[in-house]
Design a protein that fits this description.
The complex is a heterodimer of chains A (340) and B (572).
Chain A lengths: L1 H26 L4 H5 L6 H4 L2 H7 L6 H13 L5 E2 L4 E2 H36 L4 H15 L2 H15 L11 H4 L12 H7 L3 H38 L2 H8 L4 H29 L3 H6 L5 H10 L3 H29 L7
Antiparallel strand pairs in A: 1-2
Helix pairs in contact in A: 1-16, 6-7, 6-11, 6-13, 7-11, 8-11, 10-11, 11-13, 12-13, 13-16, 15-16
Chain B lengths: L1 H15 L7 E6 L14 H10 L4 E3 L7 E3 L2 E7 L4 E6 L13 H14 L6 H9 L13 H7 E3 L5 E4 L7 H5 L9 H7 L21 H4 L7 E6 L3 E6 L12 E6 L3 H10 L4 E2 L4 H7 L6 E7 L4 E6 L27 H10 L2 H8 L4 E2 L23 H10 L4 H5 L1 E8 L3 H17 L3 E8 L1 H9 L5 E6 L6 H9 L6 H4 L4 H10 L5 H18 L2 E3 L2 E2 L1 E6 L2 E2 L22 E2 L1
Classes of the chains: A mainly alpha (340), B alpha+beta (572).
């Protein structure tokens, strides 16, 4: 197992190198003017485009430009992101914990709801409860996050006024954040560690609507797959044998059928967490949630090369780490695929 | 049920507490704040903040853009035939760090701008006046430390002295630009910024200060001081040591909210006092007349926009056949004044105002704002007239245009609804005149528009210009001079116009300058140099609890959306 984990971790620099070559290579298809675009916001700045290109060596060859990027990256400098107005490393350090916070708050309910509803649907196949769950699945699948997000804001914030609007904390708490000592970067947890329960509660309340949006949309797939897996498991030979042995429905469904049905859900969970950690682009943008997703949307719109490369590097680490964890969990659930 | 009731109560109570407090100004917008370093500020996102944290020597007097008044300067004299400017600086001014402001700070600030003068910054505007060129020392080897040092100095009396290489009537207006503010030199040097000495000046040439140490931790003399900034929020608080009147607003929060619907909801609920709008049509429908919303209309617009008819199209790919055979145009198609006049009469100005500007637009006589000194309202302007357009098309190129027709392409910047509408209105009207006339409409990315524009590749494009400083030169030279920034886009060269525009740069006599600008405007009309796009009428909206904002206080040269500084505002 240890060797397996080390091997996986060693893949990270290789994946990063290939990714960076691909991305920097792809940007060479853009003209120097297009690559200078992130530095331009006005016609006045556009008038100075030649100076901008010259100062940043944007007309130089691919090896020179890539070499410059690699050399600074190896020194721990991923460059400056025009989209965030800060260094890429600092931007990731600031924004990733916020995304992790939202991921924790959403991934667990998504998995629990997905598994629970999927199991219920399969156990009550074609009955009213199953029909109801299928309606929820169709709802989650067909509703884009930007529609659901705005709808939730309009209902719970604008109309009923029971939940806060966009942002991470209310105006009153904004100034109090200056005195907060940051331990994890996750604001709700840091606030608790500082004994500021009011701020922690404020942060959690601000996360309810984005989390609800993500839970509604993303749990649909888990429900669907879980229901299908359960249906398949319930009609399989080993379940029939278990029933024949006289085991109770609770044991057969819960221990025999569901455990097997969970195998592909673990893979899906891996993808789900990779997706959430990579930033929920639309949801973070709508709710002005300061995660990496909101940043990368701006970066892409502005052709912010340093940010795109930095984000790709971060994603590579997330993918390798999460898939390693998924593989380990696979071994826990299914002894046949253990590595030792 | 009981648990649900408790939860709901808790939610309602905490939400009720969240509304914007009386001493706090909450602004929601979609832009980021690229920099808080004045020497790198060259966009409204940064300017809207920097103008409140830092102060310039001069500023605009109230809503006027022609009258300047001292801010950090108390008085100034001009001598040496307009080449020496001597400023008395305000006493007892403190920086946010607690350091006292001295002349050395002002000298350091201006020298820092001249030394760095990075491509995407506005510092070339200062360098043009103080060095006679917008270039930095990397691009122009004649820029030496001695030249920079000589340009701005403190004399024995503690006055700040600027020495210009030649007379520049625009210099004072340039000094009012937000970015040309005084920074705290001791504090900046302590952070690790340029030492202010010759020893390391070379290392700072062309250095991008967007992400400088001062950007992270600013210290100015403004009425508000920086508290903190994170991914989505910027916070400032009133500066207790401010030399001027203490601001009524204590705290200012800029929240970044990209989604317009979320901003609108926060605004209507009163959680945000001011928000970035979504265009006149949407804002009128969604916000105007709603409870708690103050709406101010008919505000000055300082952007000028034109359709450029290029007389020397350098990109053969856009010329079709390259001949007057109906399948293309020759590279000098627009060099015939009859073609330009025909196009000028063919554009339906009123339709653009009605459809795109929702009735809130007006035609100008010249490519500069009507509020700018030097604007002449008496100059004639083209109106939509199909008969006149037809007559000029018949005269053009000895009748060849009318007989054979043409095919050309009008480009617009991708994503610009305004530029697309302009191109499509022109297409419809021109094609209706003669079935042999064909105008294709195509989009280009901004970077491509800039690059192809600089090389004179586009036959027809619409572009605008917003002012850096409130002087007619900033528009007139840019649009009309054959040495101006937009020269390659029109390739229009008129010896008289060039001469008049150069003369405006060497005289400080306002009446004479205005006379020369009228001559340019009349000549441009007669020669149909550009198609002038009607200017939109500006508007503003905010929560009606805000006091101090409105038409009387609105200065279009101030970056903040209300056209006034935060220190002028209060809440009732």
């Amino acid at each position: 197992m240890f060797n397996f984990i080390v091997r996986r971790l060693l893949q990270i620099p290789v994946v990063m190198l290939v990714l960076s070559l691909m991305i920097v290579g792809l940007t060479q298809l853009l003209t120097p003017e297009q690559r200078a675009a992130p530095y331009i916001r006005t016609e006045q700045q556009a008038a100075r485009i030649e100076q901008i290109i010259e100062a940043r060596g944007l007309r130089e060859s691919f090896p020179v430009q890539y070499g410059r990027w690699l050399s600074s990256t190896l020194q721990g400098d991923l460059g400056y992101s025009r989209a965030s107005g800060d260094d890429v490393i600092d931007t990731i350090k600031e924004r990733l914990p916020a995304t992790v916070e939202l991921t924790i708050l959403t991934a667990i309910p998504i998995m629990l709801i997905g598994i629970w509803l999927g199991t219920l649907g399969a156990l009550h196949k074609d009955k009213f409860l199953d029909q109801l769950i299928r309606v929820f699945v169709v709802f989650g699948y067909s509703l884009p996050t930007f529609v659901l997000g705005i709808l939730l804001l309009a209902v719970f914030y604008a109309y009923f006024n029971i939940l806060p609007g966009a942002g991470q904390v209310s105006v009153l708490n904004q100034f109090a954040l200056s005195d907060l000592r940051r331990y994890t970067g996750m604001l709700s947890i840091d606030a608790m560690l500082n004994g500021r329960w009011d701020i922690a509660w404020d942060v959690i309340r601000h996360m309810i609507l984005p989390a609800l949006t993500l839970i509604t949309v993303l749990s649909a797939q888990i429900v669907k797959v879980m229901r299908n897996n359960m249906l398949e498991a319930l009609t399989s030979d080993y379940v029939r044998t278990a029933r024949a042995k006289g085991l109770s429905d609770r044991v057969v469904n819960g221990k025999h059928a569901r455990r097997n049905a969970l195998l592909s859900i673990i893979t899906l969970a891996g993808f789900l967490i990779i997706g959430l950690l990579g930033g929920s682009l639309i949801t973070e943008t709508i709710f002005a949630y300061p995660g990496v997703g909101q940043w990368v949307v701006q970066a892409a719109l502005q052709t912010d090369l340093a940010a795109v490369l930095g984000f790709a590097m971060m994603s590579a680490v997330v993918v390798v780490v999460v898939s390693t964890i998924v593989d380990i969990l696979y071994g826990v659930v299914d002894p046949r695929v253990r590595f030792d | 049920m009981k648990k649900l009731a408790i939860l709901s109560t808790l939610l309602v109570v905490s939400t009720a507490l969240a509304a914007s407090p009386k001493d706090t100004l909450v602004y929601q917008w979609s832009s980021d704040i690229p920099t808080l370093d004045p020497a790198a500020t060259y966009d409204t996102g940064s300017g809207a903040i920097v103008e409140n944290l830092y102060e310039t020597l001069l500023t605009y007097k109230g809503a006027s853009i022609s009258q300047l008044e001292g801010l950090l300067a108390t008085k100034w004299t001009v001598s040496n035939a307009g080449k020496t400017y001597t400023f008395d600086l305000r006493k007892n001014v403190k920086f946010h760090s607690g350091n006292a402001m001295t002349c050395a700070d002002a000298e350091y600030s201006f020298e820092r701008m001249l030394v760095t003068n990075e491509g995407s910054s506005a510092n070339y505007i200062l360098a043009e006046s103080l060095q006679g060129t917008g270039a930095n020392a990397n691009d122009d080897k004649t820029i030496t430390w001695a030249r920079i040092d000589r340009a701005v100095e403190c004399n024995a009396a503690g006055q700040l002295v600027f020495t210009l290489p030649k007379t520049d009537p625009t210099f004072l207006a340039r000094l009012a630009y937000t970015g040309f503010a005084v920074v705290d030199s001791k504090y900046a040097i302590g952070l690790g910024e340029w030492s202010g000495k010759e020893a390391d000046w070379k290392a700072w040439v062309a250095k991008d200060l967007t992400n400088s140490k001062l950007d992270k931790a600013p210290s100015g003399t403004g009425a508000f001081k920086f508290v903190r900034e994170d991914a989505n929020a910027f916070l400032a608080t009133a500066f207790d040591g401010y030399w001027g009147k203490k601001p009524a607003i204590k705290n200012v929060i800029f929240q970044r909210v990209d989604e317009p619907a979320a901003r609108q909801q926060a605004f209507l609920r009163g959680d945000a006092d001011i928000i970035e709008g979504s265009g006149r049509a949407t804002d009128t429908a969604q916000l105007k007349g709603k409870p708690g919303v103050a709406w101010v209309d008919d505000l000055p617009n300082v952007v000028a926009q034109a359709l450029f008819m290029n007389q020397n199209i350098t990109d053969k790919g856009t010329l079709g056949s390259g001949k007057l055979d109906g399948r293309g145009i020759p590279a000098n198609f627009f060099s015939d004044v009859n073609v330009r006049r025909a196009f000028s009469y063919a554009f339906n100005y009123q339709q653009y105002i009605t459809d795109f500007q929702k009735g809130a637009g007006k035609q100008r006589t010249t490519l500069m704002p009507e509020t700018f000194p030097g604007y002449d309202a008496k100059v004639k302007k083209y109106t939509y007239n199909r008969a006149q357009a037809t007559a000029y098309f018949k005269k053009a190129w000895g009748g060849q245009v009318w007989k054979n027709g043409f095919t050309l392409t009008a480009f617009y910047r991708d994503g610009s609804a305004s530029a697309q509408t302009i191109a499509e209105i022109l297409k419809r009207e021109v094609e209706a005149i003669n079935p042999k006339f064909k105008v294709n409409v195509a989009a280009k990315q901004w970077s491509e528009m800039v690059a192809s524009g600089n090389e004179g590749k586009n036959p027809l494009i619409s572009i605008g210009w917003a002012p850096d400083f409130a002087d007619a030169d900033n528009f007139m030279y840019t649009f009309y001079s054959s040495n101006g920034y937009y020269a390659k886009r029109s390739s229009w060269k008129d010896a008289s116009v060039d001469k008049w525009l150069e003369q405006t740069r060497t005289t400080t006599n306002t009446a004479e300058r205005n006379r020369l600008y009228s001559l340019v405007a009349n000549r441009a009309y007669e020669q149909a140099s550009h198609i002038l796009i009607p200017a939109g009428v500006n508007y503003s909206f905010f929560r009606d609890s805000i006091v101090g904002a409105g038409k009387a206080n609105y200065n279009p040269m101030i970056s903040f959306t209300l056209g006034t500084y935060w220190k002028e505002l209060s809440k009732k």
